[in-house]
């Protein structure tokens, strides 16, 4: 007769006996239900709050040991990290400026300084585009975004390249008391002439007082000079005539004396 094969029942029972304690232990340690806890050493342990890091994990008899972040460090979530994170450095040499200094529970936020915007291509700040003459920058300027240029409307102009200036209004010549000599364009301002010409009342003679005074002075000087000349001439003329007659009489007397001899 053939021998019967033994069934592996005893071996199976032995394996079950070995796995039974492990199954019990897995059922005793349920998964942690809160995101503020972590599982360790068969128990749910409390994570560290924002601003602190996990210095020592919990044990079967002790809780987690958390320590505060140091200067210029932070952690912004409940965590089981073994160290804090360092704040970003807003490097002014790379056109970065801190818009939020941050603290132990929040990171520092950097942004590009005015006139620059963040570019994903280079992960850096790039200088904003400049608007050409005839175009102005759209305001308000947006931080970390490139300049948006718009054409100058009628009555406004831009004559320079600028990444920040908006279009400027034309000059009002009338308010300045002047007249418009050349019309403005989107690239140039209005050109004003000199002051408006003064309007004179009709039939009003022009009077030039300084010239009249000079003319009167000249006439007065001329009259005085003429009077002096006439008086002087008369005095000198009489003396000259008397001397001439005396000389003639003397000459005639000498001629008569010579004849008698």
Automatic annotation (TrEMBL):
| Single Gene Ontology MF annotation | cytokine binding
Give the signal sequence positions: 1-27
Q: Which SUPFAM superfamilies match?
A: TNF receptor-like
Q: Which organism is it from?
A: Oryctolagus cuniculus
Query: Which GO terms of type biological process are on file?
Result: CD40 signaling pathway; defense response; intracellular calcium ion homeostasis; lymph node development; mammary gland alveolus development; multinuclear osteoclast differentiation; ossification; positive regulation of bone resorption
* TNFR-Cys repeat boundaries on the chain: 31-66
User: Would the keyword Transmembrane be found if you checked this record's keyword annotation?
Assistant: yes
Q: Which InterPro entries match?
A: RANK_CRD_2, TNFR/NGFR_Cys_rich_reg, TNFR_11, TNFR_11A, TNFRSF11A, TNFRSF11A_N
Enumerate the spans annotated as TNFR-Cys domain: 31-66
Listed A to Z, the keywords are: Disulfide bond, Glycoprotein, Immunity, Membrane, Receptor, Repeat, Signal, Transmembrane, Transmembrane helix
Protein name in UniProt: Tumor necrosis factor receptor superfamily member 5
Give the way it sits in the membrane.
Answer: Single-pass type I membrane protein
Location in the cell: Membrane
Its main subcellular localisation, reduced to a broad class, is membrane
> Could you name the Gene Ontology cellular component terms for this entry?
external side of plasma membrane
Task: Tell me yes or no: is rRNA-binding among this UniProt entry's keywords.
Answer: no
Q: Where are the transmembrane segments?
A: 207-233
Q: What does this protein do?
A: Receptor for TNFSF5/CD40LG. Transduces TRAF6- and MAP3K8-mediated signals that activate ERK in macrophages and B cells, leading to induction of immunoglobulin secretion.
Cysteine pairs bridged by disulfides in the record = 45-58, 48-66
């Amino acid at each position: 007769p053939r021998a019967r094969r033994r069934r592996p029942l005893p071996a199976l029972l032995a394996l079950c006996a070995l796995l039974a304690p492990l199954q019990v232990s897995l059922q005793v340690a349920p998964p942690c239900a809160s995101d503020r806890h972590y599982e360790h050493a068969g128990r749910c342990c409390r994570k560290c709050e924002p601003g602190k890091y996990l210095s020592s994990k919990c044990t079967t008899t002790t809780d987690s040991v958390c320590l505060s972040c140091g200067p210029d460090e932070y952690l912004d979530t409940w965590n089981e990290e073994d160290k804090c994170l360092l704040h970003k450095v807003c490097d002014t040499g790379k056109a970065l400026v801190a818009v939020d200094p941050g603290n132990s529970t929040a990171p520092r936020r950097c942004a590009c300084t005015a006139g620059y915007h963040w570019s994903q291509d280079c992960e850096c700040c790039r200088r904003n585009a400049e608007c050409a003459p005839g175009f102005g920058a759209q305001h308000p300027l947006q931080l970390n975004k490139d300049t948006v240029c718009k054409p100058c409307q009628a009555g406004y102009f831009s004559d320079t390249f600028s990444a920040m200036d908006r279009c400027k209004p034309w000059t009002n010549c009338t308010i300045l008391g002047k007249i418009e000599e050349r019309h403005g364009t989107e690239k140039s301002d209005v050109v004003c002439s000199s002051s408006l010409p003064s309007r004179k009342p009709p039939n009003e003679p022009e009077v030039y007082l300084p010239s009249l005074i000079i003319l009167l002075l000249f006439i007065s000087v001329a009259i005085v000079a003429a009077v002096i000349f006439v008086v002087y001439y008369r005095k000198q003329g009489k003396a000259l005539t008397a001397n001439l007659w005396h000389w003639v009489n003397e000459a005639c007397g000498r001629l008569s004396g010579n004849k008698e001899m």
